[in-house]
Input
Amino acid sequence: MSQPTKMVVINASPKGEYSLTLQYARYMMMHESDIVWDVLDVGEELTDNAYDIPWFQASLDRLDACDAVLWATPVYTMLVPYQLLRFLELIKQAGRVSVFAGKYATSIMSCFHYYDHLAQHWLQAICEDLGMHFMEGLSMDDKDLLDSAYRQSMRYFMEEFHHTCLHRLPVIRQSKDLVEDFVPFKPQPSASQGEKRGDLRTVLLTDEVGGEGNLSAMIKVFLASYPNQVEVVDINTFPYEGACQGCLRCELVGECDRKDGFQEFYQNLVNSCDVLVHAMNLEGRYLKPVWKLFLDRTFSNGHRTSMMGKHTCYLVSGPLDQLPYVRQFLEGKDMVGRENSAGVISDDGCHDEQLGKIIAETALRLDRSARAHFQKGANFLGIGGMKIFRDLIYGMRGVVRDDHRFYKQRKLYDFPQRRLGNQLFNLVMGFAFFLKPVRLEAYKRMKPLYIAKQKQLVDSGRL
Output
């Protein structure tokens, strides 16, 4: 008789046994025979700065002895929680990454499908870097488990994953190995721009201050070119009590459960600044982990897009061209938050003179855009993301009162069914379009009719 398959569920949620994602994982495991499994509550154990070293060592031993891994994780700030990045970093520091080699893995994620594809891409690429065979996972909504048809699909998915593990079947690889191609950035000294203005409050957030790396050089060029005074904030120096706990106290009560003052620090920062520059180092397949810690903690502001109307730009050092989902994260953050980003500037494939010119011109354009109160349009990344938030907040408006008030005040509840004129138009045209002659006439006149109001406005020359 064959031995049962030993699986480990890595629970990345800081809520531990109260994790929604864990309930999905438990359901699938319980309905698959010939599996023995246990749970590593990585999210809960690594939420505070201090952690139990014996627990960590025992976790490595359990991973070493298992046959397969199921990553169960929520999506925080368009990626997995910081705690999971920390767990992987601790394993790397301990020299035990071999515990994953050759094992099969898949994932289950629960969220409201807000940029969950970025988290999925990242996790699969990380597993492939670790030498794992990763089978594409599932992304769930909060109510999916309550649907009988979906439960059937979940059971089938687990059967397929187990079958793949038992027979060592091939799986589709998504990622390529990262190619280290560091080119040092050595800009020419910048000419003095004269006295800096102080009427636009500008803050530069960074994970590197005064270093010897490319990012510090990029920051120097930006500071020399930008015509305003800049307050530089090193996010490494904030006295973090720990990571986001996912407790939702900020949503329900209005204040963060952490007592380290991060909520006040962040809200004061974004509420009072006009321009916010992010200077970021890449590490591995994402930003430096301290950025994940920082960004997850910004959820203390709830689902309110705190950067709306601000002007931003991103200076990024590292192989950004090989990490398209990191670029999409930055662009999506800009678009959903209506940040008015002047762009993402990378030193990837650095050419000193060209990169220096780009940074200098972006610094000047950022100043001009802020003074003109320029508002960018939003593309699919922004419109799609905001509609997910809109529906989520409206559906929970009795509970998340601060978010609801924010969305009402800014007219973000743009439901099409509330536009009475549009509803009346569709009612009338719906009856008329039963008749084929009407549809044919509409087809003939569609081009001029579609632009009639806009053309009339432009032709008038009044605006």
Summary: The chain is about 45% helix and 15% strand.
